[in-house]
Amino acid sequence: MNSRNDMISERKSVTTLPASRALSPRAGTVRRRVAGVVAGVAVVGFAAAIVAPTGIALADPPEAAVAESMYSVALVDTQDLTVTVDGAAIAPADRGAFSVYVTPKPTPTPTAKPASTGGGGGGGGPLFYTGGGAPAEWMAAAGIAESDWGYVDYIVSHESGWNPNATNKSSGACGLVQALPCSKVPGNGYDPVDNLRWGTGYATSRYGGWAGAYAFWTKNHWW
Predict the structure, then answer these.
(1) Are 210 and 152 in contact (CB under 8 A)?
(2) Which of 25, 168, 195, 212 has the maximal Cβ count within 10 Å?
(3) Among positive and negative, which fits the CA dihedral 48, 54, 59, 62?
(4) How far apart are alpha carbons 223 and 180 in whole angstroms?
(5) What digits encode the pLDDT tens for the residues 138-197?
């Protein structure tokens, strides 16, 4: 058993700390607050390190630049429609920025039709003579000399009987002198004056005149 003197000596041997090093209740509280702040910062940093890659991955990727074309713009225009219950009321799209070129159709080249050389009445059929008159009037109008009227009368009487509209169905000869072909007569082959004028030229060029044509006809019964 220790004596009282021993206990006193033991107490004296204990080293007393300076007042500056002794911990006060206020200092302990500050240290605990600092430790809590540090711990909180550490937790936040750890959470950010975990969430940051995931956030980047979940973010919407940047849209790639899409080249705008005539087709894409036209497609948008055709889809921009307004439909009512009464029917399809389509709002006209603004296409002022576009121009459409339509290749024009070539103009057909007109085909020239051959001109009629007279005689048979053209494409609408023969133009038959409907006027009046007498053989003497027709010969005078055709410029035939009266001295040749007898020759002309003989030939015309045998060829057509003085019928201005006489037509040979087999050969196509027409008129008073039976001009062949009828289209050779300038004007109208069925007009008696035109027909006799042509006959004068034919008789002169082939037989030397109406007298020679008469002589040939009486021998051969044609001219």
Answers:
(1) yes
(2) 195
(3) positive
(4) 11
(5) 999 999 999 999 999 999 999 999 999 999 999 999 999 999 999 999 999 999 999 999
Residue in this structure with the two tokens 């008789």, named with its chain if needed: 203
Q: Confirm if 176 and 166 have CB atoms less than 8 A apart.
A: yes
Domain boundaries, the chain: 131-220
Alpha carbon distance 7, 104 (integer Å): 130
Query: Which burial class, exposed, middle or buried, applies to 61 when counting CB atoms under 10 A from its CB (0-12, 13-18, 19+)?
Result: exposed
Give CATH for domain 131-220.
1.10.530.10
Q: Six-digit token pair at 210? A: 């109406």
Place of tokens 């006193």: 8
- Give the predicted TM-score (pTM) of the model: 0.47
Tokens standing for 216? 């040939």
